[in-house]
Design brief:
The chain is built from seven helices and 26 strands. With 389 residues, the protein is α+β, with helices and mostly antiparallel strands. The protein folds into three domains: 187 residues, P-loop containing nucleotide triphosphate hydrolases (Rossmann fold); 81 residues, Translation factors (Elongation Factor Tu (Ef-tu), domain 3, Beta Barrel), CATH 2.40.30; 91 residues, Translation factors (Elongation Factor Tu (Ef-tu), domain 3, Beta Barrel), CATH 2.40.30.10. The strands form six sheets. Strands 9, 10, 11, 13, 14, 15, 17 and 18 form an eight-stranded antiparallel β-sheet that branches. It has a six-stranded mixed β-sheet with strand order 4-5-1-6-7-8, sandwiched between helices. The protein has a six-stranded antiparallel barrel with strand order 19-24-22-21-25-26. A hairpin with a 2-residue loop joins β21 and β22. The chain is globular. The structure holds guanosine-5'-triphosphate (GTP) and magnesium ion (MG). Magnesium ion binds next to α1.
């Protein structure tokens, strides 16, 4: 019982790299960890460990997403690097990536390419408000051409409402920094400074009623049932009374831990384990929600904006019509639902449509909530709730 308590020394942010295939997202991610490891504030994660990340189950969807952790002088970051374009679409639209800010990687040799523009559009749609640009491969680029690339990126960002004139654009070389070249090592430092100063601390809704979607349930012999997951909003302390939605029971939190360390108080954004008093192991499941009692009202009907994945993104090859009945992955829950396409009646792979959904059972819903649509074990769509009821 003498475990060292977790000490919150710096604010935590979630960021990630975006950009066209091969522009150097993974190389840059590796370079960031290397430069910070040399400063003594992180662990170096080499390229092949990032790019061959194991499949992780995030929010009920099997998503290929690599997290690396590092600290600057002022902040603690969890950084995601996604290996393919289809993964960006899924992770961004369902909110699984949960980015507070993004580093847009653009090759100085190629400039803006289709996925550069697409990721900027996606970022805007899912509410990523701050982008910092890394013009990568600057070691190999011609100076004048790089000037043009920078102009072009600023224009693209302005066109999507990002204030391209003020967005920091930093010329970097992930590859040369990895090789230890001092000039380019410095460029990574400059990029991190830009992220530290330009991406504001996210609003964590710490004052909202507590909510934790259950990802996993385990038993600790002699202590009881433990649920794990990321705190979506609010705070929780030992002694707090909570409701477990889905299980239809109330309990009291008798332990709070993060990464195996006890903590006084967990807050929005933290990954935690909660020990619940008097709850049987089989009474609670993934998909249930632990919340401040009476703070959530479940419903079964909602309107949403849905993107139907194209066949190239691993989606369907045939259109979706009214009456289609797939599975909806909402937070950590998995619920069947009927889709009504209204007047459109048909949605082809690649389309973005407005739909009304009637779920097979009630779950807590709210505008802005992201979800994935799955069928036969694969993701075929992603959406955001626009109206409940
Ligand atoms: N000259 C130069 N080459 C680079 C630099 N960064 C990356 N590369 C090369 O560009 C290629 C692609 O790099 P990755 O880091 O895999 O690119 P990525 O954006 O992660 O690619 P995907 O994950 O497939 O979209 C590799 O051959 C890298 O060695 C750089 O700063 N300078
Ligand atoms: Mg990559």
């Amino acid at each position: 019982m003498s475990k060292t308590a977790y000490v919150r020394t710096k604010p935590h942010l979630n960021i990630g790299t975006m950009g066209h295939v091969d522009h150097g997202k993974t190389t840059l991610t590796a370079a960031i960890t290397k430069v910070l490891a040399e400063r003594g504030s992180g662990t170096y994660v080499p390229f092949d460990r990032i790019d061959r990340a194991p499949e992780e189950a995030a929010r009920g969807i099997t998503i290929n997403i690599a997290h690396v952790e590092y600290e600057t002088d002022t902040r603690h970051y969890a950084h995601v690097d996604m290996p393919g374009h289809a993964d960006y679409i899924k992770n961004m639209v369902t909110g699984a990536a949960q980015l507070d800010g993004a580093i847009l990687v653009v090759s100085a040799l190629d400039g803006i390419m289709p996925q550069t523009a697409e990721h900027v559009l996606l970022a805007r749609q899912v509410g990523v408000d701050h982008i910092v640009v890394a013009v990568n491969k600057a070691d190999a680029g011609d100076e004048e051409l790089t000037d043009l690339v920078e102009l072009e990126v600023r224009e693209l960002l302005s066109a999507h409402g990002y204030g391209g004139d003020t967005v920091p654009v930093v010329r970097v070389s992930g590859l040369r920094a990895l090789e230890g070249d001092p000039r380019w090592t410095e460029s990574i430092g400059a990029l991190l400074d830009a992220v530290d100063t330009y991406v504001p601390l996210p609003e964590r809704y710490i004052d909202a009623p507590f909510l934790l979607p259950v990802e996993n349930v385990l038993t600790i012999t002699g202590r009881g049932t433990v649920v794990t997951g990321a705190v979506e909003r609010g705070t929780v302390r030992v002694g707090d009374r909570v409701e477990v939605l889905g299980a239809g029971l109330e309990s009291v939190v008798t332990g709070v831990e993060t990464f195996g360390k006890p903590m006084d108080e967990a807050q929005a954004g933290d990954n935690v384990a909660l020990l619940l008093r008097g709850v049987a192991r089989d009474a609670v499941r993934r998909g249930h929600l632990v919340a401040a009692p009476g703070s959530l009202a479940p419903s079964s009907r909602f309107t949403a904006q849905v993107y139907v994945l194209s066949a190239a993104e691993g989606g369907r090859t045939t259109p979706v019509t009214t009456g289609y009945r797939p599975q909806f992955y909402i937070r950590t829950a998995d619920v069947v639902g009927d889709i009504d396409l209204g007047e459109a009646a048909v949605a082809r792979p690649g389309d973005t449509v407005t739909v009304t959904v009637e779920l097979g059972r009630e779950v807590p819903l709210e505008p802005g909530l992201g979800f994935a649509i799955r069928e036969g074990g694969r993701t075929v769509g992603a959406g955001t709730v626009t109206r409940v009821g």
